Automatic annotation (TrEMBL), chain A:
This is Uncharacterized protein. It comes from Actinomycetospora aeridis. The lineage of its organism: Bacteria, Bacillati, Actinomycetota, Actinomycetes, Pseudonocardiales. The keyword Membrane applies. The keyword Membrane applies. Keywords: Membrane, Transmembrane, Transmembrane helix. The chain crosses the membrane at residues 43-60, 72-96, 138-157.
Automatic annotation (TrEMBL), chain B:
This is Uncharacterized protein. It comes from Actinomycetospora aeridis. The lineage of its organism: Bacteria, Bacillati, Actinomycetota, Actinomycetes, Pseudonocardiales.
Amino acid sequence: MADRYRRPREDDRPDPVTAAERVEFDALSETSLDSVTASAERWRNGLAGLTTVVTGALLIKGPANAADVPVGWRIALTILFGVGIAVSVSGLWLALRAAAGVPARIRFDDLRRNYGTVRLYKLALAERAATDLGRARAAALVASLLLAAAALTWWWAPPDPTAARSVTVTHGTARSCGVVVESDAAGLRLAVRNTPTHLTIPWTTVTSVRPGPCP
Amino acid sequence: MTDLPYERTHPRAFAWTDKAFDLLQSGELRGEVHRRAGLETAVVAGSCPRCTHQFRFETSRDAVVTGGGGTLATRDVVTDDGEFVPIDVSCRCEGTHDGRLETEHGCGILFRIEVRPDTHDG
């Protein structure tokens, strides 16, 4: 234990300005955890607002029905929306974790053994919250770009060419939906999805024909 | 025993640093530096080298701030755990010392101790 301490040299006396600055810095250090969690809370609210704005704009400006766009474009929309929402939710989760923390019990003896001082423990908590907050910010940026890309993709997607020729035909007690292939004196021929042959419906059984995309 | 007045003449006299080392050796004063994951704090507690009042002083090398994009971020400097870490300590006793202002603490002295750090693994 004798070499735990060393006698300072006489010319290494404390500097009064450095000592005064140290007091200020210690006050800053003491509030590390509070300042990071408060900042995280603001970011969490901001992220939620951002997601609401992007999603809201999408719902207002997008086409009335996503089923009206061709399948390829619909797949792209699904990926952009799905990943965008997943990243956004991840960011909100990280911001929430930074703001609220994860409740855990710690014993004084454990704290002393693992951290030495309460201050070091609080600093470690603050640093963890700051790391979460940094990841949440990155997630927010990525999610915003993905959701904005999804919105723009939706706006510019061409209409599904088959949707314009789709009809729902009520014939007898049945109802069939498909793309009109041919219409003549004998009846109406439809190409029905997932059916290899065309469906021919005699005019005598048709009670109504309603244009519109199939469900 | 009458408490000493607040020190104005020689607050940084080497005598306080010298006496503090003797108190550290005798166990009447204790200093600890703790490191973990790049963070470092120090705590000094025990008898003041001047007024002999009991006091506790705590300080840290690091702080986490939320100053925005212009925040001055620092990286860890690799230091040898065997090195002695200098700590500038001010008396923070609760004793009565004439001449002490409302914003001041202790008996007015500032001294230095040098301690080997304790490193805690994550």
